[in-house]
Description:
By secondary structure, the chain is α/β, with parallel strands linked by helices. The chain contains 10 helices and 5 strands, in the order βαβαααβαβααααβα. It has a single domain, classed as P-loop containing nucleotide triphosphate hydrolases (Rossmann fold). The protein has a 5-stranded parallel beta sheet with strand order 2-3-1-4-5. Adenosine monophosphate binds near residues 9, 58, 59 and 145.
Amino acid sequence: MNLVFLGPPGSGKGTQAKRIAKKLDLLHLSTGDLLREAVKNGTELGKKAKTYMEAGELVPDDLIVGIIEEKVASGELADGYILDGFPRTVPQAEALRDMLKKNDSGLDKAILIDVTDEEVIDRLSSRAKIEGRADDADVSVVRNRLDVYKKQTQPIIDFYEKESILTKVDGEGDIDDITYRLQEAITKK
Ligand code: AMP
């Protein structure tokens, strides 16, 4: 099963992707985690990504597409996966479609975790305290990430709707209920 998880920052995408990956024995690939690790280790990638991340902007498409291309080429994704935080723009979604096609592969479903703006802002400010993420603690950076999501990432919802693989799941309420709803939506034919 090859899946993409979509949703605004703070939608619970990462938490739920981890849970579902474990339940369905899929690889969980979070580009945000990967980039934070690169920044922490001071790698070339980290150095290039740092200023964008601190401002709540997206890192350039070619940088992130290159990472995913490496993962596809390495065969790591061969047994099924959940992409969390990628794609974030229409060019990324197109690049993903093309690189998968070249490998005779494709996505099974794109899952949109639906939450309201108010819920997102609430969750991000509590996550800032728990996880100590700098980009959650600064209100102007949080607002910018939401703005970036609306302008650059939301258009891929239409992209996947047109490809007939989009499934929306209500992302509000009890965390276990959300996992259950996601699992149902993913395993349903
Ligand atoms: P996340 O943990 O998914 O919220 O990502 C944290 C930050 O990493 C984002 O605000 C972006 O700066 C960067 N990032 C993660 N994934 C991508 C992507 N697919 N394209 C561009 N930037 C990304």
